[in-house]
Every structure is written in C-alpha cells, then in structure tokens.
Amino acid sequence: MSTTLKELQATETAPGSDGLRHAGALILNADDWGRDRETTDRTYECAQAKALSSASAMVFMEDSERAAEIALSQNVDIGLHLNLTTPFSGAARAELQEHHRRVIRYLKGSRLAQFVFHPGLQRSFQYVVAAQVDEFRRLYQRDAERVDGHHHMHLCANVLFGKLLPGGTIVRRNFSFRAGEKSFVNRLYRHSLDSRLAKRHRLTDFFYSLPPLEPRARLAQIFALARQSFVEVETHPVNQEEYRFLCGGEIFKHAAPVQISPRYVVRQSIER
Fold it and tell me: pLDDT confidence of 268, banded at 50, 70, 90?
C-alpha cells in the first residue's frame, strides 16, 4: 500500500538517498537526455541554471555518447530512460535493432498493447531491456540506480509482469490524479500497478508532468505537496515553452518556498 499524505505529515523527516533526512522533495527531472544534440544542450542549460534535479538518458541514440561524457564531467544526476517505442538513431548491433523493431511494432500497433502481456515477444522485450541496461552501464560507468520509460512504456505489461527492471532500483510511478480527474477504473488500475511496483522498487509519492503551465495555480498545488512528500515533475526542455519557464527562472518564483532538489531523492525502504 502506498504511503498516505496523513502518514507523511505525521513523519517529520524521512531518509533520502543522500543519507540526509527529508520531510519531502521537489524533483524536476528532464527526459530524453542524449536523444539528440539540441535535447542534451537545452537540458544541460537548465541543469546549469539549477532548474533541474536530474535527467533520464536514452542510449543507442545519436547524442548518447556525448551526453554521457557531459554528465560524467559535470556531475549531472542521470537515470535510464528506457526506450521501447522510438527507433535507435545511434550505433546498435543488427540483432538488437531487429528485437527493438518487433517491440516497437507491437506497442505502437494498438493503444491497448501496453496493457496486454505478449508471451511470444517476451524474449525480444528481455533482450531490448537488458541491452539498454548494459549500455547505460558502459556509458555511465555504473549501474542505473533509476529507471523510467520513453512514453512511459517501462510500465507496459511485458516489462512490469516480466520483472525486467532491476530489483531495488528507483522506478517512475504512474501519473498522479485527484478524484474526478480520471475515471475510478482508471485510477484503480494505476494504483494497482504502483502497488505492484512498490514491492520491488522505490517510488516517489507523487508524479506529475510540468505542462500544462496554465493555470499557474495547478503548479502551485503540485509544488506545495513537496513540503511533506516526495514529488517528481517530468519535463522536456527541448519544448520551447518549458525551456523558457525553466531557464528563464520563472520556475523558482512558482516553486518558492519549496526548493528544487539538487538531485533525485526518494525514501530508502521498499514497501512489502
């Protein structure tokens, strides 16, 4: 069962991954690091402006190698952005390309595909996930401590029920919605997936997308949760509106008095 807000408020502090103690944290994470030069450069500018906590890296893409060099030299907090839906644009061996194409065809063939476990494709899913985990290790000289997914497909049935993500890692949960924002069945399904994830992985308490940027009251409500909860906000600085909001400094005005975490941090324990 996920930690409730009441339980969070009853606990003054909780352990973070940096060994310090936190009541909550506002985590701004940029997706698609390494996808191409423009994406990497815009994300890095926002990180330099301290408008980001971390980024999630794509491997086997055209800027993956350079992006890894930047992250290592500049100490950018990086996790793995698992890619199961966009063709690789960097160097990848033929066998991997073929398995990846099979996975892409399946997941993009139907809106329901991600919810249905396909036993005939499980070897391809295993191969593609393992290859990206290994490539991250090669590029970043360490195991990925954190995993999320391009188009959120790290939560597809073949990955989740196949237990393909390394146990104990931090994994991005489903988007958070309040009562009335989505149907009860939709919210129940998301809750069941998050509960399953929490048995093997560490999660934030809430997860939102930075857009839409209007109304600003929405962002204020999200940021306020971080006073007592661990909140991840996903962003894509390659998008001009988000880039201006982050690099122009407006993010700090709306996040105050909550500070943006300097890195990705969650509670230590894995719920059983």
Answer: low
Average pLDDT, the chain: 90
Which pair of tokens denotes residue 110? 């139907």
> Around 129, how many Cα atoms within 13 Å sit in the side-chain half-sphere?
21
| Ranges assigned E (strand) in the chain | 14-15, 21-22, 25-33, 54-57, 78-82, 146-149, 170-171, 206-209, 230-235
Q: Is the pLDDT of residue 124 over 90?
A: yes
For domain 5-255, give the CATH superfamily. Answer: Glycoside hydrolase/deacetylase (3.20.20.370)
> How many CB atoms neighbour CB 69 within 10 A?
11
pTM of the model: 0.88
Beta bridge partners of 171: 147
Q: What is the distance between the alpha carbons of residues 3 and 198, in angstroms, rounded to a whole number?
A: 10
